[in-house]
Task: inverse folding
């Protein structure tokens, strides 16, 4: 049977109707069910879905470009007749919900004595025999306790029938449980595999590095170079770590070539500066600039480090660009590269410029 | 200062003829010495007179010297690669990655494992002593992915096991020995389907069975007009030999089969090689052609006659050892099925079949026991740098139709379209023979099965190159992506760097 939630809301709303507040009245059941049913569609799926600011869209705020705000004539007539009918009655039986969900014929007939006299003979017989009202098979069949159980109230061998039903149930149950209408298991779609999207197929840092190596918009060439670099990291001998230049979160040196993307990430993150230096003019006076350290987010830090590595590679003597960059990355891992000095210099200026942070920077 | 000339003298001075007087400008005569510098000396530079001379109809703006753009052809300050260096880099073959993990339980290819169907789908390592031999016959190609693993290994797939059994048969071992049988195959398949590696596996197996291995690692080298060629007089149509290529072939063969050839004595008479010492080995014979291209073709002919000899000539019976079977492989067959880049005296293109070297190896495919002591001929096509001759395509279709039992008169039998200009010479050459004793076969290499692919990826995982769990689903995804197990594509997927899942 269809759920009768609307009846409860109807009752609650009938109490509300006595209130004189127009705002509340506007929320009453006078709004057609059609609108209430489609509320979830109206929900905006944005990033700030959860939270207290969520506003339930009011029924009368609905604005469909193709539909009227008011219900159509027949619905309105029904609504009015229902209200009128209900006011005449005093037994509290809710008025016809036929419009909303469709009631069994018996239910309608039970309210109407006149119609019961003229109802078909089959139905009259049915009423006499069982004394209970019939049920809608379509609704009943969805209820779990009915499914697969042969209703057998009376009979000579109720136990035998129950055993038979049990057997049938046992025979059917594994099939139903394992294959609910499918030949094979239902495919499990990974929920959080970001690589399902072809745009995210590469690691974040790898992609950033590749795009910073790109010249003249030739992404494919940059990707090819990145492939050569990673292959170089994979096949060249493991870096000999310098204890004065430790890498952050690095696995043991012998394992680094086996995961070249991680190798690259560790190297870039280790030489990434924490902040940039902003040259603020006009504070100190006399034309002198004040150096103010500004914090960088992860992506900005990495970008700076990658730029330094690529610039540092330009001085190398290797023949191809990719080889130069690869050699520079290994040099950074081994603490030989000039990128470390750049980072130290940046941090030194930043530390000495900490005093300038108190100056008002807002303009 | 007073002149030393007196008036009297001056008045007596007469005008001399023009020719005798020294001219104001330096005289340029026909003197053979030292005139060049004078003649070709740079003209005296004009003084910079920009301030004085007004240039008209020229814009008066200041011209700034443009800064030369930084040399960024390869992205910075590296020196340019020399052509030789570039070529060396292109041809470089790296067979080992010391960073990859050593696989403990890796099985080597051996006479037992190469026919073991229980090992199907596993990666068998190539025996380390054999690597030098395989390098000598140029079995490895630069673009194959040997460089990421600790040591080279190949998948034992269905075709490999079948070939192993065939080689066992021809060697006279196994269940159904057929000693002396000659099997001729053209290996075809999609790009990356493992044709070259199939040849490599054949070579490895032949080395294990102590066969003589003769290879042409790239058929294109013989027709792209990079080696010298000379016409052979008295042939019609005119035929050509390529002496340097033959020398290289001899070097390759001796390098790879040294142990075997050192044990075989010369057993035939070779009047064309008077310098050959009596009682010398086949190694000595082949070495005659190493440095002397003039006789290299004669040496090769003698060498071939020795290898295919079934009995010694009269008077040379002493120390005759039965010749082993032979494996002959050619990679890139399509280049031999068209006109070459060589030109004759009339500047017409020479057909590849008119080159003696090519003709010799192709003639082995013809009907009959071209290898008297048995052996295997594997001629593979290659889809990288493929001239794609129509005649070869039709010829291979015909071979396939013949194998499927379609007769030449049937309408389904492939025929060239009218006016397609197909090379009749090639079609005629590769025509499938009716009722042949050792027919030319066509072998198609397809993708490997999922189980074999799984074994292949487990090899990646054990080498530490793939960090995911190798499950049925994981393998299935890659198997589908690779076009149904095309192993070259699988290899790319295995070594590709991707974001870690989740």
Result:
């Amino acid at each position: 049977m269809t759920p009768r939630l609307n009846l409860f809301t109807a009752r609650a709303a009938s109490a509300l109707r006595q209130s004189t507040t127009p705002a509340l009245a506007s929320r009453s059941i006078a709004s057609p069910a059609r609108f209430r049913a489609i509320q979830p569609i109206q929900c905006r799926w944005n990033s700030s879905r959860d939270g207290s600011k969520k506003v339930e869209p009011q029924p009368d705020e609905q604005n469909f470009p193709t539909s009227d705000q008011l219900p159509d004539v027949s619905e309105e007539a029904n609504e009015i007749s229902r209200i009128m009918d209900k006011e005449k009655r005093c037994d509290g039986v809710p008025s016809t919900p036929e419009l909303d969900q469709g009631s069994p014929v018996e239910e309608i007939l039970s309210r109407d004595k006149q119609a019961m006299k003229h109802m078909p003979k089959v139905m009259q017989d049915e009423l006499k025999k069982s004394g209970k009202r019939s049920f809608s098979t379509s609704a009943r069949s969805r209820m779990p306790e009915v499914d697969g159980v042969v209703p057998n109230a009376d009979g000579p061998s109720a136990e035998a029938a129950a055993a038979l039903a049990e057997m049938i149930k046992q025979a059917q149950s594994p099939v139903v449980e394992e294959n609910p209408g499918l030949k094979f298991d239902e495919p499990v779609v990974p929920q959080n595999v970001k690589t399902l999207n072809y745009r995210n197929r590469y690691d974040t840092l790898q992609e950033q590095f590749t795009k910073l190596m790109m010249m003249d918009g030739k992404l494919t060439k940059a990707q090819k170079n990145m492939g050569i670099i990673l292959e170089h990291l994979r096949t060249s001998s493991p870096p000999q770590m310098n204890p004065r230049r430790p890498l952050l979160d690095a696995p043991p040196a012998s394992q680094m070539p086996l995961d070249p993307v991680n190798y690259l990430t560790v190297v870039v993150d280790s030489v990434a500066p924490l902040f940039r230096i902003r040259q603020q003019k006009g504070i100190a006076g006399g034309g002198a600039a004040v150096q103010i350290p500004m914090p960088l987010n992860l992506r900005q830090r990495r970008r700076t480090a990658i730029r330094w590595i690529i610039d540092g590679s330009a001085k190398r003597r290797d023949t191809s660009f990719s080889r130069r960059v690869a050699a520079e990355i290994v040099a950074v891992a081994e603490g030989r590269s000039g990128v470390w000095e750049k980072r130290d210099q940046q941090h030194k200026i930043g530390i000495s410029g900490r005093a300038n942070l108190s100056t008002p920077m807002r303009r | 200062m007073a002149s030393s000339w007196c008036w009297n003298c001056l008045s007596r001075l007469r005008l001399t003829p023009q020719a005798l007087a020294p001219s104001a400008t330096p005289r340029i005569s026909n003197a053979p010495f030292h005139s060049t510098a004078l003649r070709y000396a740079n003209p005296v530079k004009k003084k910079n007179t920009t301030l004085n001379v007004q240039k008209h109809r020229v814009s008066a703006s200041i011209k700034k010297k443009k800064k030369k753009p930084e040399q960024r052809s390869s992205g910075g300050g590296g020196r340019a690669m020399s052509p030789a260096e570039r070529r060396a880099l292109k041809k470089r073959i790296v067979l080992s990655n010391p960073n990859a993990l050593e696989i403990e339980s890796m099985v080597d290819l051996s006479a037992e494992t190469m026919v073991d169907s229980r090992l199907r789908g596993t990666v068998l390592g190539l025996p380390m002593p054999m690597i030098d031999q395989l390098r000598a016959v140029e079995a490895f190609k630069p673009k194959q992915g040997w460089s990421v693993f600790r040591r080279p290994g190949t998948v034992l797939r269905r075709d490999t096991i079948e070939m192993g059994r065939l080689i066992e048969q021809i060697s006279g071992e196994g269940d159904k020995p057929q000693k002396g049988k000659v099997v001729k195959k053209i290996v075809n398949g999609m790009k990356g389907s493992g044709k070259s590696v199939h040849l490599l596996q054949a070579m490895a197996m032949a080395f294990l069975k102590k066969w003589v291995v003769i290879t042409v690692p790239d058929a294109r080298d013989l027709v792209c007009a990079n080696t010298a060629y000379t016409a052979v007089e008295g042939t019609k149509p005119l035929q050509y030999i390529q002496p340097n290529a033959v020398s290289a072939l001899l070097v390759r063969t001796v390098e790879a089969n040294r142990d075997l050839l050192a044990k075989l004595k010369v057993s035939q008479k070779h009047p064309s090689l008077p310098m050959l010492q009596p009682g010398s080995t086949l190694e000595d014979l082949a070495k005659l052609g190493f440095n002397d291209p003039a006789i290299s073709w004669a040496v090769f002919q003698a060498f071939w006659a020795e290898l295919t000899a079934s009995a010694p000539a009269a008077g040379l019976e002493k120390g005759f050892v039965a010749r082993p079977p032979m494996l002959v492989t050619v990679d890139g067959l399509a280049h031999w099925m068209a006109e070459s880049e060589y030109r004759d005296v009339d500047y017409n293109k020479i057909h590849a079949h008119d080159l003696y070297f090519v003709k010799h190896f192709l003639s082995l495919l013809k009907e009959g026991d071209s290898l008297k002591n048995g052996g295997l001929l594997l001629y593979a096509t290659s889809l990288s740098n493929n001239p794609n001759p129509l005649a070869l395509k039709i010829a291979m279709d015909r071979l396939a139709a013949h194998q499927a039992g379609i007769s030449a008169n049937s309408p389904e039998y492939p025929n060239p379209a009218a006016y397609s200009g197909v090379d009749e010479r090639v079609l005629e050459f590769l025509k499938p023979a009716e009722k042949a004793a050792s027919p030319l076969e066509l072998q198609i290499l397809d993708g490997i099965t999922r189980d074999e692919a799984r074994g292949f990826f487990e090899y990646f995982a054990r080498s530490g190159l793939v960090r995911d769990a190798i499950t049925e689903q994981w393998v299935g995804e890659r198997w589908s992506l690779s076009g149904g197990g095309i192993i070259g594509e699988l290899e790319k997927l295995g070594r590709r760097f991707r974001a870690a899942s989740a």
Summary: Residues 293 and 354 of chain A are 7 Å apart (CA to CA). Chain A has three domains: 1-45+52-95, 103-130, 199-358. Residues 1-45+52-95 of chain A form one domain.
